[in-house]
Design goal:
By secondary structure, the protein is an alpha/beta fold. It contains 12 helices and 15 strands. It has 2 domains: 31-58 and 320-424, Alpha-Beta Complex (Aspartate Aminotransferase, domain 1), CATH 3.90.1150.10; 63-318, 3-Layer(aba) Sandwich (Aspartate Aminotransferase, domain 2), CATH 3.40.640.10. It has a 7-stranded mixed beta sheet, sandwiched between helices. Strands 1-2-3-13 form a 4-stranded mixed beta sheet. A 4-stranded antiparallel beta sheet has the order 11-12-15-14. Strand 14 (389-391) and strand 15 (397-400) form a beta hairpin. The structure holds 4'-deoxy-4'-aminopyridoxal-5'-phosphate. 4'-deoxy-4'-aminopyridoxal-5'-phosphate binds at residues 110-112, 115, 138-141, 205, 209, 238, 240-241, 267, 277.
Length: 425
């Protein structure tokens, strides 16, 4: 790729106006102007298959979502300090997708704020200050949460009282995965305790997106949850990535493990691009926080957000998108496995519904991560009109996360382009 002068000018303006902390995707950045369904279009009308978007989860600019959003924007667009039915009917409907123990929901604008609220509630409920996260986790941008997001790298120091544990990687963890992962949680608990720190919570992304996508075997998280509960800490499921049907069989990633979290954070796909996020919890865990604190989030759960998020649930239901994630996800996984038989660079493949991770390795050795080749493949796909990215601590896992309206034809298109990228070397 070669960046046209107009786009080079935008890159300079970004640096001038937005400063040094932002990053663009790709060697040749993509300049998008429009989206529809699984497709995105750049300013020259070139189409890109969006295989990476778990925000526009029911498809870019879904007409029902846009209609609900704009209709409410024209009626009333204020916050949660006036009586309004929209937020309540949405809250009740959202809670109906959870085990009955999880009976309250609070609204925020971002997943980071939801996790930050969970952080505060966990401290108030347990009296503890220790948090346990996985080694390459990402949970958000606030000071407290960036401090428990090791994937941000050494430039963003971990917070006090944070302990990290290895990801549940079946290639690198020995023995029974559930027991080994739980043993790591126990080691972190013991280390906190040894330092006089009471554990407040274990928080994990239930598909371990930034750690490299780990969903199997179903149920492996249960022992880790027992370990944190035994220590008096809470279990927080970060569903910002897997939530809202993406994993196919269930609405939430934690359900794959047969567990009931104490709190669940939600975000990204909740409003299909409109900023709405939230935290679902057991009423008993917020009692201590609620007795003292007042919570008001100016834009969180505003009337437009509620109408938009409600339309997202309508679409998930009416278009059978959870089922589609299961069937098309299985097809996608099989297609990748088939491709792997012909290309030794394509290593282990992991998936739950339409959340897939495929390792790029050297010489068919599943442990020989190849980050350079992975970056080449991601950029080659971009040139071929397919958007994805890479993840994991070794930056060698293709992270594939298309809108849930993805079709069998879209899978075939993707596999064709991936094969071309693999052949290109
Ligand atoms: N948790 C996870 C697992 C995430 O992937 C993200 C966003 N990438 C967040 C939390 C934070 O969400 P937001 O960017 O909406 O603050």
């Amino acid at each position: 790729g070669h960046l046209p002068p107009e786009d080079q000018a935008l890159v300079s303006r970004r640096q001038q106006a937005l400063g040094p902390a932002y990053r663009l995707f790709y060697e040749t950045p993509v300049h998008l102007v429009r989206g529809e369904g699984v497709w995105l279009y750049d300013k020259d009308g070139q189409a890109y298959l969006d295989t990476y978007n778990n925000v526009a989860s029911v498809g870019h600019c879904h007409p029902r979502v846009v209609e609900a959003m704009t209709r409410q924007a024209g009626l009333f667009a204020s916050h949660t300090r006036y009586l309004h039915e929209g937020i309540l009917s949405y809250a009740e409907r959202l809670l109906s997708y959870f085990p009955q123990e999880l009976a309250h929901v609070m609204f925020t604008c971002t997943g980071s704020e939801a996790n930050d609220l969970a952080f505060r509630i966990a401290r108030a409920h347990t009296g503890g200050t220790g948090f346990i996260v996985t080694e390459n986790a990402y949970h958000g941008v606030t000071h407290a949460i960036a401090g428990m997001s090791p994937s941000l790298g050494v430039g963003v120091p971990l917070g006090e009282h944070i302990r990290t544990i290895p990801a549940p990687d079946p290639l690198r963890m020995t023995g029974d995965l559930a027991q080994s992962f739980a043993a790591e949680v126990q080691k972190a608990i013991d280390d906190l305790t040894r330092h006089g720190i009471k554990p407040a919570a274990l928080i994990v992304d239930t598909v371990f997106s930034s750690d490299g996508v780990y969903a199997d075997p179903p149920g492996f998280l249960a022992a880790a949850v027992q370990a944190i509960h035994r220590a008096g800490g809470l279990f927080i499921a970060d569903e910002v990535q897997p939530g809202f049907g993406r994993t196919g069989e269930t609405m939430w990633g934690f359900q794959r493990h047969g567990i009931t979290p104490d709190m669940v954070s939600l975000g990204k796909p909740m409003g299909n691009g409109y900023p709405i996020a939230g935290l679902v919890m057991r009423p008993e865990v917020i009692a201590a926080f609620g007795a003292k604190a007042r919570y008001f989030n100016t834009f969180g759960g505003n009337a437009v957000a509620a109408a938009t998020a409600n339309a997202v649930l309508d679409v998930i239901e009416d278009e059978g998108l959870m089922q589609n994630a299961a069937t098309v996800g299985a097809l996608f996984r099989d297609g990748l496995a088939d491709l792997a038989t012909r290309h030794s660079a394509l290593g282990p493949i992991r998936a739950a519904g339409l959340f897939l991770g495929a390792e790029i390795v050297r010489n068919g050795d599943p442990l020989a991560a190849d980050a350079t080749r992975t970056a080449r493949i991601v950029n080659h796909l971009r040139e071929g009109g397919v958007l994805i990215s890479a993840t994991g601590p070794r930056a060698n896992v293709l992270k594939i996360r298309p809108p849930l309206v993805f079709s069998a034809d879209n899978v075939a298109f993707f596999l064709d382009r991936l094969e071309a990228a693999l052949q290109a070397g």
